[in-house]
Amino acid sequence: MQYTYEFELWCGEASWCIAPFNLPGATQGDDVEDACESAADLLRETVRDYLMRGQQPPAARFGNEPEHGGVRVIVSVDASLADVERVTASQAADILGVSRPRITAMLSSGLLDGWKEGRNTYVTLASVKARLAHPQPAGRPRGTTQA
Fold it and tell me: Which H or E run includes 20?
């Protein structure tokens, strides 16, 4: 699905900055083209984040007044969960060497990114790879003792 939002683009101290008017986040680039490409990436990932939570992104508003002395820019992207690399929760459990219920807990706590479609739970391959790259020790963290 196509998502189109209005952003503000302005020249910061060291780079071009760009932020959507009614969505969270901001990004920057070395030049205008780089900033606009970064804005498209930000918009695509923000929309996917809403969709993973089972929500629709807020309705776009146009005709906003720039807040940083910049100009208004329209950014439009095609975004859906269909093009997100994913594995099932069971596959994620096998890859990470944990139980399926642990995957559910990791999704609930934000340690992994994923979503449900009907009875199926999916985990983003990127979050599984990130977890593999930075494994956490098993068990509860040890408390510190005072002398």
Answer: strand 16-20
DSSP string, 61-81: --SPPPSSS-EEEEEEEE--S
Q: How far apart are CA 103 and CA 99, in angstroms?
A: 7
Quick: pLDDT tens for 93-144.
999 999 999 999 999 999 999 999 999 999 999 999 999 998 777 666 666 6
- Do residues 75 and 62 make contact, with C-beta atoms less than 8 angstroms apart? no
* Nearest-angstrom CA–CA distance, 11 and 129: 35
Q: pLDDT tens-digit profile of 26-59?
A: 999 999 999 999 999 999 999 999 999 999 999 9
Q: Around 33, how many Cα atoms within 13 Å sit in the side-chain half-sphere? A: 0
- Per the document, the length of the chain is 147
CB 127 within 8 A of CB 112: yes
Q: How far apart are CA 113 and CA 54, in angstroms?
A: 13
Whether residue 47 contacts residue 41, with contact meaning beta carbons closer than 8 Å, is answered with: no
